[in-house]
Amino acid sequence: MTRVEIDGTALLTDQYELTMLAAALADGSAHRRCTFEVFARRLPTGRRYGIVAGTGRLLDAIERFSFGASELAVVAPFLDNATVDWLADYRFTGEIDGYREGELYFPGSPVLAVRGNFAECVVLETLILSVLNHDSAVASAAARMVGAAGGRRMIEMGSRRTHELAAPSCSRAAYLAGFDATSNLEAVRSFGVPGAGTSAHAFTLLHSGADGAHEAEAFRSQVRALGVGTTLLVDTFDITRGVATAIEVAGPELGGVRIDSGDLGVLARQVRDQLDALGATGTRIVVSGDLDEYAIAALRAEPVDAYGVGTSLVTGSGAPTAGMVYKLVEVDGVPVAKRSSHKQSRGGAKKAMRLARGTGTIVEEIVYPAAGPTPDPGEFEPRDLLVPLVRDGKAVEDLPTLADSRDLVARGLISLPWEGLKLSAGEPAIPTTFAD
After folding, report:
1. Residue predicted with more confidence, 116 or 321
2. Which of 36, 82, 200, 206 has its CA at 20 to 30 Å from residue 326's CA atom?
3. Alpha carbons 150 and 138: distance in angstroms, whole number
């Protein structure tokens, strides 16, 4: 049996990063001073903003990006001895600036700038993009779902629909974007995300048999173990009978019931009426089952208290790639740019500012040359977007916590004009202006 255990991060990369390194070391260009930038050329169809996520995980991953004996054994067969020796001593010693984790971004936003020599920067490309693309995609989808939910409780349940090692980072990104809890216990341990979960259909079937005659036994067992505040899954068999049995067992103080299938809007109204008639007016209704932001928005008028979201958040159409790329934009102070059709980049190191009205509503994002003058904000209030993240290869002190970043997302969404919160297809509501 083959076991996959990942401690260091140096092999979370593509082979061509190291073959480029070898060639650059051989021809002497490896030590030229360079700036690489991360940006998205466009947003996925229908998206009007993105959320920068994964920065905290990325800085930890860069700190652990080094080549020990086991990593060198993998790369030595296709590299020359000089390159292997260089990798054995590798530690990133450059600088990184970036948008704060939890910041909104738009097409062309320079969300990360990496400065150092070519060799030490180029080998980080795949690691940087894999973390930022994954976490930003999940966070961007999650933020839309949180907005559609209108303040109702959101629980991330996507662990069984994604890779086991990706599941905790999905939970973290969803929590950053406004979800309230996760079912994934590794996310609870690693990132401090609040945990949630009670039971699945298997527990009901274990006690009740094929016809559901003893469904009450499953409910009774769960209430004994978890207390009357628990949430009972009532749609394993007949939902009307399930609700009646749940209240018969737990009484009108039952914490909640969960509906996992069917026409959720119709069933939520039916269950609410039934619960109220049974005196369980405080019992919450939780719905789950292939929800996305559109389904959640459609349920806003229904008596739903909480949503459990999995598949559409962590994989598939609900969380498309963020589309970020990592491009060389400056060599020895000289701007360089890719000119390919449909994949152009803008040369030169950049800064960015966001302009807002006095009310806080965002009106524009300006991206301008780092070496040039700061654009005049006119009547609007400016805010610099790029902040120091790494200096001399070390993460700067007092970086935002996950709670800080979660708060930044909430404040950012409030600052969007109403067009930016639409779920329908359309261009980003905030224009990105590139100043010469």
Report:
1. 116
2. 82
3. 19
pLDDT reported for residue 419: 87
* Distance from C-alpha of 274 to C-alpha of 48, rounded to nearest angstrom: 40
Q: What is the pTM of this model?
A: 0.94
Angstrom CA distances, 119 to 10, 96, 249, stand at 14, 15, 66
Cα separation values, 56 from 89, 132, 155, 399, Å: 24, 10, 22, 9
| Beta-carbon contacts of residue 127 (< 8 Å; ≥ 6 apart) | 9, 12, 13, 58, 61, 62, 65
Pairing type for strands 231-233 and 256-259 reads parallel
* Distance between CA atoms of residues 266 and 299, nearest Å: 10
Of 270, 272, 263, nearest in space to 299 by CA: 263
Phi/psi for 378 (5° steps) reads 65, -130
154 - beta bridge partners? Answer: 307
Question: How many CA within 13 A on the CB side of residue 181?
Answer: 12
**Range scoring the smallest mean pLDDT among 133-137, 216-220, 333-337, 427-431:** 427-431
Residues for the chain: how many in total? 436
From residue 102, alpha-carbon distances to 67, 349, 410 in Å are 31, 22, 9
- DSSP string of 58-122, one letter each residue: HHHHHHT----HHHHHHHGGGS-HHHHHHHHT----SEEEEEPTT-EE-TT---EEEEEEHHHHH
Q: Which amino acid is at 44?
A: P
CA atoms of 73 and 68, how far apart (whole Å): 9
pLDDT tens per residue across span 344-386: 678 999 999 999 999 999 999 999 999 999 999 999 999 999 9
A 10 A CB-CB count for 370 gives: 16
Q: Give the pLDDT score at 1.
A: 42
State whether the Cα torsion 266-269-270-275 is positive or negative.
positive
CA nearest 407: which of 209, 176, 210, 181?
Answer: 176
Helix axis angle for 15-27 and 81-88, nearest 10°, is 110
DSSP, collapsed to helix, strand or coil, labels residue 388 as strand
